[in-house]
Specification:
single chain, 3 helices, elongated
Amino acid sequence: MALTKLAGGTAAVGALHWIWTFPPWPLASRADFTRTVGGVAEADLPATELTTAVAAALGAAAYVIAAQADFAP
């Protein structure tokens, strides 16, 4: 049961990173997004490619955890 929750949490964090590749959702501008979510200036925000890579890595990790828990093939 604990591995299933861990897989779900990891997948949720990965999905959130994927959503963050489409700023400024849910805020009005990219500058507002970077200040609110990252606490940094817009120029200091990680590149979209890096955020996508983190999302993919978290998705893969969630799958491995779910497979270990016999929740996924």
